[in-house]
Amino acid sequence: MVMNRLYQMPKEKAQQLLNLAKEQVPLGVYAIEKNKILELRNDKCGSVTQLKTMKRQLKKAGYKVYANGVD
Fold it and tell me: Which terminus of the chain has a smaller tally of CB atoms within 10 A, N or C?
């Protein structure tokens, strides 16, 4: 979803988009996925603890989380 619009694309193109988004968020969540719908995010965190908390909340809601900073 970009600017409140949905786009369909092959998995390879989506992976390229994820790689680009990954470069833009050094510490935070750059995307989430649920039911084969990928949502790009720009959730920057001030600390690793904040990032871990955000990841836990999103995973609890059923999302696959793409983030930089902590595995």
Answer: C
Residue by residue, DSSP assigns 32-68 as: EEETTEEEEEEEE-SSHHHHHHHHHHHHHTT-EEEEE
Spatial contact of 58 and 65, defined as CB atoms under 8 Å apart: yes
pLDDT in tens, 18-71: 999 999 999 999 999 999 899 999 999 999 999 999 999 999 999 999 999 866
DSSP type of residue 62: T
As a whole number of Å, the CA-based R_g of the chain is 12
